[in-house]
Design goal:
Number of domains of chain A: 3
Structural class of chain A: alpha+beta
Strand order of the largest sheet of chain A: 1-4-5-8
Helix content of chain B: 25-40%
CATH architecture of the largest domain in chain A: Up-down Bundle
CATH class of the largest domain in chain A: Mainly Alpha
Strand order of the largest sheet of chain B: 11-10-9-12-8-1-6-7-13
CATH architecture of the largest domain in chain B: 3-Layer(aba) Sandwich
Distance between the termini of chain B: 57 Å
Radius of gyration of chain A: 22 Å
Largest sheet of chain B: 9 strands, mixed
Largest interface: A-B, 20 and 19 residues
CATH superfamily of the largest domain in chain A: Butyryl-CoA Dehydrogenase, subunit A, domain 3
Mean pLDDT of chain B: 91
Number of helices of chain B: 7
Number of strands of chain A: 10
Helix content of chain A: 40-55%
Shape of chain A: globular
Number of strands of chain B: 13
Mean pLDDT of chain A: 95
Radius of gyration of chain B: 21 Å
CATH superfamily of the largest domain in chain B: HUPs
Shape of chain B: globular
Oligomer: heterodimer
Low-confidence stretches of chain A: none
Strand content of chain A: 5-15%
């Protein structure tokens, strides 16, 4: 077993780090100023983000998971996860360009031109629309209906908590095409342009994640806009979700790492009762617990990513990584705020914002409880839990 | 034209002081669990060479040359990812050798390459900071040496080099071949490698020259000997200025400087 990175992997991460350090870190102060003025939500604006993405593109940081034939660099999951950890050390919200939802690669030749390629180029924006007001964790129970009318399909229903749903100009919508079959052959994915008639409404949240509610009132979608095959939508949805279950803990690790660094710095600097607060065991334990949990989250995530690259079913390990990563970020944010005392609670420092932001890690793309359900079911079914390595 | 850039792998100079120690008996640093990195001025030298090649529209062959253990290949991998045409490792332990011997060995390695118009290296390595290799290498090669260069341009069939001086710059015209030691100025920080180039360089070969092939005899030259090595004793008393915000800390600092009679 070799835990070392190859020289190439180190170089790639060095390039990511250089970009983050040179281009993103300097924006943190402005973000904080914007936050103080109550406009942190809109910082940085779309034009700035686009400019940064194009700068990153010059370095080849474009489409990390996008295959080379589509202009990406096809880094694989492990390196994408490592790059994400590096990127999320910076508190400025940013994502590299050149990416498309993994399931858009299921597009046929025509759809590729109309949806996949423009999304990769950043000319079009997609959103993944599965969750509904009455079907979140139990996504098999979605109700959005798609009724065939000639060669068209007519979609009626509502989607909620759709990330990027306000900005998207098309949605990947999952709808029931055969109620009797349910998730086993009765759900279909559609590519639906905003121009076809769906509407969106912003949902304010406690963090900077601003999802949308999408409403479909008899939206007519041409038959050629079915993504993949009719009845095979649920499999696509799961493929999208499993990928997220490796990326979210990577984000959590990056954020937690940065917060811990802030905590360590403050514990060294802040003097109370005549000595640095880091001399106190109460503070030391908070730092040590955070370090242990972050390291565990890092390796759980890398292992789940490695399985994905090897083409081995990683749903069990991805659930473990997502559960532990999300919880770690929340515990670390809480401890680091505690270490900072009153200062940590103010908007002078970014800790309170991170604390609000990481809360959703435990909710979206599978709540803690759903991950635990997956893990426990695998144990009870006997498919996992033998401590076996591949 | 052909330029050779010398790249040295050094212990990361950014590691915290608390992680660094020396062995006074063996008179060398204790190797901590710290990453090795490319010596920073060598990075500037490589950047200067890359800019020269960019300005020539690519009409400049670049060879990256390193002397060190097998693991020093990593700095050469970086050079290949930055699209150097050739990478050569002189494989052997260079720690403990004096600058004179190193210069002879590297000169022997350079003579095995296609004739070089320029040899570039950092003005000093980030580990021992001796700053002697450039001059000695020029002597071994029998060519002139121009130190503290920050920029090079092609000027007809010669070169124009900008040298950094205390408070100013000098511009030289030199025909080559020559050795240039490079300093950090004019934003000549080594560029990051493009991801695609990193991937493309994955399979590139690194030529290895065994130290034994290049070092004939002991060179018969006197070397500087390290007789003692120790870390500097902690200096005086350090005081931390406390305060929750930058403004608060600034006020405390000014007040404290006043108390000390410094302002």
């Amino acid at each position: 077993m070799d835990f070392r990175l190859s020289p190439e992997e180190r170089l790639i991460l060095e390039t990511v780090r250089t970009f983050v350090q040179a281009e993103l870190m300097p924006l943190e102060q402005e973000l904080q100023a914007a936050e103080l003025e109550g406009r942190g939500q809109d910082y940085p604006d779309q034009a700035t983000l686009r400019g940064l993405q194009l700068k990153a593109r010059d370095l080849g940081l474009w489409g990390l998971q996008t295959p080379e034939e589509y202009g990406g660099v096809g880094l694989g999951t492990q390196l994408t996860v490592l790059a994400t950890m590096e990127l999320f050390r910076c508190l400025v919200p940013f994502q590299f360009g050149g990416a498309a939802d993994n399931i858009l690669f299921a597009c046929d030749a025509e759809q590729r031109k109309e949806y996949l390629l423009p999304t990769i180029e950043g000319e079009r924006r997609s959103c993944f629309a599965l969750t509904e007001p009455t079907a979140g964790s139990d996504a098999t129970n979605i109700r959005m209906q798609a009724v065939q009318d000639g060669t068209d399909w007519v979609l009626t229903g509502e989607k909620v908590f759709i990330t990027g749903g306000n900005e998207a100009d098309f949605a990947i919508v999952f709808a029931v095409t055969d109620r009797a079959k349910g998730a086993k052959g009765g759900i279909t994915a559609f590519l639906v342009d905003r121009a076809m008639g769906f509407t969106s409404r912003y949902i304010p949240t406690m963090g900077s994640w601003g999802p949308a509610r999408l409403t479909f009132n008899g939206v007519r979608v041409p038959g050629r806009n079915v993504l993949g095959e009719v009845g095979k939508g649920f499999e696509l949805a799961m493929r999208w979700i499993v990928n997220g279950r490796v990326i979210i803990p990577a984000r959590a690790v990056g954020r937690s790492q940065r917060l811990l660094e802030m905590g360590v710095d403050y514990a060294r600097q802040r003097v109370a009762f005549g000595r640095p607060i880091g001399d106190n065991q109460a503070i030391q334990w908070m730092l040590a617990d955070s370090e242990v949990e972050i390291e565990a989250a890092r390796w759980l995530t890398l292992h789940a990513a490695w399985l994905q690259d090897e083409g081995i079913d990683n749903r069990h390990e991805a659930s473990i990584a997502k559960l532990h990563g999300a919880q770690t970020a929340n515990r670390v944010a809480d401890r680091v705020m505690q270490i900072h005392g009153g200062m940590g609670y103010t908007k002078e420092l970014p800790i309170e914002r991170v604390l609000r932001d990481v809360r959703v890690f435990r909710i979206y793309e599978g709540t803690d409880e759903i991950q635990k359900r997956t893990i426990a079911r695998d144990l009870l079914r006997g498919t996992h839990g033998h401590g076996r390595w591949e | 034209m052909h330029a050779v850039v010398l790249l040295k792998r050094v212990l990361d100079p950014e590691i915290p002081q608390s992680a660094f120690a020396v062995d006074p008996e063996r008179r060398e640093p204790l190797v901590p669990r710290a990453p090795y990195v490319l010596s920073v001025f060598d990075g500037n030298a490589l950047e200067v060479a890359l800019r020269l090649r960019d300005a020539l529209g690519g009409a400049c062959e670049l060879t990256a040359l390193s002397f060190g253990p097998q693991a020093a290949e990593e700095v050469l991998r970086k050079a290949l990812a930055l699209q150097c045409d050739r990478a050569v490792l002189v494989s052997g332990e260079e720690q403990g050798l004096g600058a004179r011997r190193k210069a002879d060995i590297l000169a022997a390695a350079i003579r095995r390459l296609p004739p070089a118009d320029l040899v570039l290296l950092g003005r000093q390595a980030a580990d021992w900071e001796a700053g002697q290799l450039g001059g000695m290498l020029a002597e071994s090669l029998g060519v002139p040496c121009l130190p503290f260069v920050s920029e090079v341009r092609r000027d007809g069939d010669a070169f124009q080099a900008v040298q950094q001086l205390e408070g100013g710059t000098a511009v030289y015209r030199l025909p080559g071949p020559a050795v240039l030691t490079v300093t950090n100025a004019g934003g000549n920080v080594l560029r990051p490698a493009r991801i695609r180039d990193v991937m493309a360089a994955r399979g590139c070969e690194i030529a290895v020259l065994a130290l034994g092939e290049l070092a004939k005899g002991d060179g018969g030259t006197a070397e500087v000997e390290t007789t003692a090595l120790r870390l500097p004793p902690p200096r005086g008393k350090a005081e931390m200025i406390d305060g929750a915000t930058a403004g608060e800390r600034a006020r405390s600092l000014v007040r404290r400087l006043g108390e000390l009679g410094a302002i």
